[in-house]
């Protein structure tokens, strides 16, 4: 079906923004938890496709605990859960009595997948704790950059960016994404964080953060492609027509959200509120 990608985006984007802006923070946490749980299960299926095993109930339980800890802003709980994940999942793999050849791969991939999705989802919850504007800022940069890369690459793309990992990505699409990140970062910062007294600073900071987030988003997208490539899978799932699975859609956000959260915490004064 033509325009599947566009139709899916036209339906999902307003719904996501409505929950983010109009609903209370706990609703955003619930939405992130539901979407990222599906993404985590898709990641587990990729791992299982290689012949490794995953203690899925324990992994999902730990992930939900991570999101709850992020919602409560409990740093101690997040640290404890990280330690529990590192110890518990390999232990469960061992007691599942798999073949010796898959012990290390199963343990390492189970821990990584759980922490990878938990860190990104927790950061999205943490950004919402600051307010809905930083999340919209993140979404605007990632979504605009992704669209720019797709359409610029399809129209003008010739030079392959990462032919082994993602044959369809091109340098032309990459530069289109960087341009969109700069432009939308600057524009979104001015619109979302208006301040007449510090407009130049807001513009420059928004553009810089837009560029950083765009670069990290590309890395996150390519990283997820390496996971799928190593498992000989094209898409992580088929839930979203024209887009693949939720892991395919969240890959850039899972990678970029912790970076933006850290950047806002480190920049003196942050973005004006």
Account of the 3D structure:
The chain has helices at residues 4-22, 25-49, 56-71, 75-95, 103-130, 132-156, 171-192, 199-230, 246-266, and strands spanning 160-162, 166-170. It is mainly α. It has one domain. A two-stranded antiparallel sheet has the order 1-2. It is globular.
What would the keywords be for this entry?
single chain, 273 residues, mainly alpha, 9 helices
Separate helix tally: 9
> How much helix, percentage-wise, in residues?
over 70%
Q: Between the first and last Cα atoms, what is the distance in angstroms?
A: 43 Å
Element order: H for helix, E for strand: HHHHHHEEHHH
Q: Outline, from the CA principal axes? A: globular
- Biggest sheet strand line-up: 1-2
Tell me about the biggest sheet? Answer: 2 strands, antiparallel
Strand content: under 5%
Query: What is the strand tally?
Result: 2
Evaluate the radius of gyration: 19 Å
Q: What is the domain total for the residues? A: 1
Present the secondary structure layout:
Elements: H1 4-22, H2 25-49, H3 56-71, H4 75-95, H5 103-130, H6 132-156, E1 160-162, E2 166-170, H7 171-192, H8 199-230, H9 246-266
């Amino acid at each position: 079906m033509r325009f599947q990608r566009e139709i899916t985006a036209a339906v999902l984007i307003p719904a996501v923004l409505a929950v983010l802006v109009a609903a209370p923070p706990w609703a955003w946490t619930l939405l992130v938890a539901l979407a990222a749980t599906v993404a985590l299960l898709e990641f587990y299926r990729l791992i299982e496709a290689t012949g490794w095993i995953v203690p899925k109930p324990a992994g999902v339980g730990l992930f939900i605990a991570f999101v709850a800890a992020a919602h409560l802003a409990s740093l101690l709980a997040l640290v404890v859960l990280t330690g529990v994940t590192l110890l518990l999942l390999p232990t469960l793999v061992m007691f599942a009595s798999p073949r010796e050849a898959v012990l290390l791969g199963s343990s390492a991939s189970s821990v990584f997948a759980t922490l990878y999705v938990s860190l990104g989802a927790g950061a999205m919850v943490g950004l919402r704790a600051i307010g809905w504007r930083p999340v919209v800022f993140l979404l605007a940069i990632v979504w605009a950059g992704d669209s720019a890369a797709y359409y610029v690459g399809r129209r003008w793309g010739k030079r392959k960016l990462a032919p082994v990992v993602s044959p369809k990505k091109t340098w032309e699409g990459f530069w289109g994404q960087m341009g969109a990140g700069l432009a939308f970062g600057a524009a979104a910062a001015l619109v979302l964080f208006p301040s007449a007294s510090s407009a130049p600073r807001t513009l420059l900071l928004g553009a810089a953060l837009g560029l950083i987030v765009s670069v990290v988003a590309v890395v996150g997208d390519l990283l997820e492609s390496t996971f799928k490539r190593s498992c000989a899978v094209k898409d992580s799932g088929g839930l979203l027509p024209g887009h693949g699975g939720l892991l395919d859609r969240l890959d850039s956000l899972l990678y970029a959200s912790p970076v933006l959260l850290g950047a806002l915490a480190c920049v003196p004064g942050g973005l004006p509120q």
